[in-house]
Structure formats: C-alpha cells, structure tokens
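Protocol step 4 of 6: structure prediction from sequence.
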Amino acid sequence: VHDAFKEAAMQNKLHISYVRAVLFDWLGIERNRSP
C-alpha cells in the first residue's frame, strides 16, 4: 500500500509540475504577445 501511495504521489507531483510548466509557458507567451 505504501509503494502504491508513493507512486501516486510521484505521478501527482509530476503532473502538477507539468501543468505549472505549461501554464507558465502559456502566461509567458501571452505576456510577450501583449504590447
């Protein structure tokens, strides 16, 4: 059970970091595009 929880936590952390990276990338593009 502990391993499954740790694996889920790792995947969740990766998912959060991925979403954050995409979000910041999109925000950066939006900021650069606006005058």
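Step 5 (inspection) to follow. The two ends are 52 Å apart (CA to CA).
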